[in-house]
């Protein structure tokens, strides 16, 4: 029976978006190439052996257009014979890339694949691919006559309908920054982060070790507008820039190999890609697909919540992770133990591979066996992945 194993996983440090972003002047193709090249350098693999590079990117326009993964492969110095494809499942794009790459290995279509992701939100602003476009069409508009909402309003609705106070959101955000800062100081990110040529950035630029609940309490709601106030009077306007993920630039990549091939090549498998799930959910409360995604992936794996030793739940908004915690009853001490996207950052198309990279590190640092990753995605979608750490 074929198995898909993770041989290595890397990410760049995440830069803040403009202004002042350390990675803002790096073309996304070069940013992406940095992690592809690092995988080859760290493992000694012949890049010509890679059957495919499956990559995620959300803003597939401008400098991230025209199948950006292909150009990153060439920029990394891989042979021209190595193919690449860019996928879009919104914020879960590179998590979906991991699923596609692993499924290709399991099916026998690939023996060696790389799953990766990139997003330069400084150079390709969020939403620019849809600016001025009617991307819903008449039929979807007719199905949802009251209209859909932006993700920030969805995060507000979740907070309001789940009774999540502003204080609880801010406390969660502070904890994320504290955990990330501690992880950096203690060296827990050292094995997963690789440098970007020509850039002086050694840590995730959005982490604020000195932030506090008092500081965050002074921030204004990020998504208030009179039209939303009239439509949703129940919203208490709790979501701010402080308890949401920032705008970031970054890339991440995962080397996925068929187990017998890894042994033949002398590559050490670090974890097995155990189970996958993807779900569709309410496109209005679009961020809560992570709840059914968790149920589905656990059922497929034949595991319970108690079997999972570490969770990575993307912190697009604090309200989303807190609602997930309340719904699932998961132990908060096992969730985003090295901090999450509120502090580390959320470069959209790179985040799925970044979370997996960090999850693998956490399992190795704690001796845990099973890790579960899940991520909310625009349109009411969510991916979930379970990996199993392998002993040396």
3D architecture notes:
- Pfam families: Thiolase_C, Thiolase_N.
- The active site is at residues 91, 346, 376.
- Keywords: Acyltransferase, Transferase.
- InterPro entries: Thiolase (IPR002155), Thiolase-like (IPR016039), Thiolase_C (IPR020617), Thiolase_N (IPR020616).
- It is built from 13 helices and ten strands.
- The chain has 392 residues and is an alpha/beta fold.
- It has a domain at 4-124 and 246-271: Peroxisomal Thiolase, Chain A, domain 1 (3-Layer(aba) Sandwich), CATH 3.40.47.10.
- Strands 1, 2, 3, 4, 5, 6, 7, 8, 9 and 10 form a ten-stranded mixed β-sheet that branches.
- α1 (28-43) crosses α2 (68-75), α3 crosses α13 and α5 (151-161) crosses α11 (318-328).
- The longest helix is centred in the middle third of the chain and has 20 residues, at 166-185.
Which key features would you list for this structure?
10-stranded mixed β-sheet, Acetyl-CoA acyltransferase, 35% helix, Thiolase_N, 10 strands, alpha/beta, 392 residues, Peroxisomal Thiolase, Chain A, domain 1
Helix/strand-derived category reads: alpha/beta
The main β sheet shows up as: 10 strands, mixed
CATH class label of the domain at 4-124 and 246-271: Alpha Beta
* Percent of sequence in beta strands: 15-25%
Oligomer: single chain
Cα end-to-end separation: 21 Å
Number of helices: 13
Order of helices and strands: EEHEHEHEHHHHHEHEHEHHHEE
Number of strands: 10
Task: Give the low-pLDDT segments.
Answer: none
Q: Using only CA atoms, what is the Rg?
A: 20 Å
CATH topology of the domain at 4-124 and 246-271: Peroxisomal Thiolase, Chain A, domain 1
Shape: globular
| CATH superfamily descriptor of the domain at 4-124 and 246-271 | Thiolase/Chalcone synthase
Helix content: 25-40%
Please identify, by name, the CATH architecture of the domain at 4-124 and 246-271.
3-Layer(aba) Sandwich
Average pLDDT number? 97
